[in-house]
Amino acid sequence: MSNFSVFEYCYRDASNYKAYGRLLLNGIASDVDVQLMRSRLESSELFIAEQLAIPPLYAELWELSHGPTGDDHVWHTFENLRPAADDEIKQPVFDTIENFFYNIAGVGAWNQKLSPHWDC
Question: pTM for the full model?
Fold first, then answer.
């Protein structure tokens, strides 16, 4: 087993069109770490990607719609955090698990103004 984790997340617009992303993290999270992370997310699953410097996923949907639509909003959804498979550790490492959790724990309030959709 590798010493890497994969953070899986999703952007789902109001029409339920979805784009998925994965980040490779150096380190393994415990169940307690995941519970603490969920406690910092809005409704235990929502976050502002820009606030965590996570690549936002809505641009994938913009390719289909030719730009932002009224269905876009500010939130991304946490899907899963799991150990990385051997073939996944070939992608670039996004961060360490410690830094990633530190950034999430440091969020006092989610700042919707960081998203290009905050005033939609």
Answer: 0.90
Strands of the chain (E only): list them: 4-12, 18-26, 46-47, 76-83, 93-96
pLDDT tens digits along 43-85: 999 999 999 999 999 888 877 776 677 778 899 999 999 999 9
Cα 80–22–35 angle (5° rounding)?
30
Secondary structure string (H, E, C) spanning 26-53: ECCCCHHHHHHHHHHCECCCEECHHHHC
The DSSP bridge pattern shows strands 4-12 and 18-26 to be antiparallel
The model's confidence at residue 98, banded by pLDDT at 50, 70 and 90, is: very high
Q: How many residues does the chain have?
A: 120
Q: 76: alpha, beta or left, given left = phi > 0 and alpha = psi -120 to 50?
A: beta
